[in-house]
């Protein structure tokens, strides 16, 4: 292994830095070749790792070693403690590999030099000036909480012209975005946290983009926009309209309804990913939203009717249909019908679906449609089943009895779909539990494949008989994992549990 060709090592390390950066750090200790291959990869974005940067003195040492002697002398006079290491004594020219800036991480690192806000401000100023000089290009910039207008540095124009990804929030003064708009016009990924109603600067930055492919906007839950008739997001949506022919990934979460959505959303014909709410669009307006290339679709659970229309229009290439976490539903009658149509439209229009979350009423009609879906959608890999039972107060059966009944029905349906060799993980939420007998029968029928089961129902499976049964089929290789987790983790199908 230690004698691998450098090109092969590079490809392996490229994968490790995305999925297992801790292992890549360990690889640096193998030998000189491994170290020389790994360092440039790690230092492309040295701020992205899960470590406490305020305690990583070596990063502070490396960056400050690049500062000129006169700047070091100036900072020392201010009471800032700098390590006695020169740039020439470093093994690598680390900053020449770097392509990114993360403002929060830089703030943590500068706190090592001084606890005083003013001193940290001076250090950060010198760091950013240094980055503009030493970085060959700037690809990734997370500027949330920034206090320094770095576009005024002499080398900033050249560096910022190459920017591919920008993360920011709306608390930044509009003048900052106006400055960036002059320099950064080829951003491909723009991720914005909306924490305050201050949109003019960020709207201008969006408007001038010429190659924007990924746009994400998330409202802070505490955001308050006064006035019931205000179209709060008008500037943002009309700025996005200029990029409608380029954007392939659109993730917009608005707390407030925007009347402009009905004019803008149908224009994004090239979308491959759509994560949004269609709360402001009526049925006719929804039918105008046609996304032939759509592969990933995520929507709130209470927008099932809107989701069904989009799926009918654009379902042929869909691989993921995900629902945002649900709360108690008020409009139960519409939910029953809407969830039924939702399931039908998936098995009629989505032959390529691989990841699917369903929320449904535990009626015989719903179970029948789910069984049809499992027979038609042969590419399913991960399935989330959420039962919402609105009848638990109007039944002669106890809550526990009904949950066991629903669980048994679901397992029967899944047994009938055991010929689907692609299904590797099933998640269960809401009103269903599995009796010992039903679970054992299900495991027997699943023999020959490996399956992971994740459920949000904790207590029943802590019983020793259940543990013994589950461990038996784990040892047989039928079950890869059987786990109880929080509701939030189970329904979040974007995360690996």
From TrEMBL:
InterPro entries: LRR_dom_sf
SUPFAM superfamilies listed in its UniProt record: RNI-like
Highest taxon listed in the record's lineage: Eukaryota
Name of protein: F-box domain-containing protein
Organism phylogeny: Eukaryota, Fungi, Fungi incertae sedis, Mucoromycota, Glomeromycotina
């Amino acid at each position: 292994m230690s004698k691998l060709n450098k090109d092969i090592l590079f490809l392996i390390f490229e994968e490790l830095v995305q999925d297992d950066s801790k292992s890549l750090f360990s690889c640096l200790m193998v030998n000189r070749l491994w170290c020389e291959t790994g360092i440039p990869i790690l230092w492309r974005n040295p701020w992205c790792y899960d470590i406490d940067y305020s305690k990583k003195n070596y990063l502070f040492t490396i960056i400050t070693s690049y500062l000129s002697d006169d700047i070091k002398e100036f900072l020392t006079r201010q009471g800032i403690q700098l390590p006695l290491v020169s740039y020439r004594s470093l093994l690598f020219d680390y900053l020449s590999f770097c392509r990114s800036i993360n403002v929060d991480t830089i703030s943590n690192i500068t706190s090592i030099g001084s606890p005083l806000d003013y001193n940290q401000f001076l250090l950060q100023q010198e760091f950013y000036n240094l980055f503009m000089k030493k970085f060959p290009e700037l690809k990734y910039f997370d500027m949330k909480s920034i206090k320094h207008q770095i576009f005024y540095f002499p080398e900033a124009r050249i560096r910022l012209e190459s920017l591919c990804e920008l993360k920011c929030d709306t608390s930044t003064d509009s003048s900052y975005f106006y400055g960036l708009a002059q320099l950064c016009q080829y951003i491909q990924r723009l991720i914005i946290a909306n924490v305050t109603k201050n949109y003019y600067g960020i709207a201008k930055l969006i408007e001038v983009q010429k190659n924007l492919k990924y746009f994400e906007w998330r409202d802070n839950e505490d955001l308050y926009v006064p006035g019931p008739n205000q179209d709060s997001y008008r500037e943002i949506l009309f700025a996005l309209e200029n990029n409608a022919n380029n954007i392939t990934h659109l993730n917009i979460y608005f707390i407030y309804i925007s009347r402009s959505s009905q004019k803008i959303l149908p224009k994004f014909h090239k979308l491959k990913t759509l994560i949004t709410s269609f709360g402001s669009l009526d049925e006719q307006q929804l039918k105008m939203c046609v996304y032939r290339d759509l592969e990933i679709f995520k929507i709130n659970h209470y927008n099932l009717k809107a989701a069904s229309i989009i799926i009918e229009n654009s379902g042929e290439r869909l691989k993921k249909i995900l629902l945002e976490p649900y709360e108690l539903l008020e409009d139960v009658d519409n939910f029953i019908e809407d969830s039924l149509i939702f399931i039908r439209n998936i098995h009629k229009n989505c032959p390529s679906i691989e990841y699917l979350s369903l929320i449904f009423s535990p009626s015989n009609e719903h179970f029948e449609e789910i069984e049809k879906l499992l027979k038609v959608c042969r590419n399913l890999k991960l399935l989330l089943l959420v039962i919402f039972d609105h009848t638990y107060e109007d039944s002669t059966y106890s809550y526990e009895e009904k949950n066991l009944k629903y669980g048994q029905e679901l397992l029967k349906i899944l047994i009938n779909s055991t010929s689907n060799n692609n299904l590797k993980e099933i998640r269960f939420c809401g009103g269903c539990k599995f009796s010992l007998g039903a679970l054992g029968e299900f495991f027997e029928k699943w023999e020959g494949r490996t399956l992971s089961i994740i459920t949000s129902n904790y207590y029943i499976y802590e019983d020793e008989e259940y543990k013994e049964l589950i461990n038996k089929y784990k040892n047989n290789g039928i079950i890869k994992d059987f786990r109880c987790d929080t509701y939030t983790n189970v329904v979040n199908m974007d995360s690996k549990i």
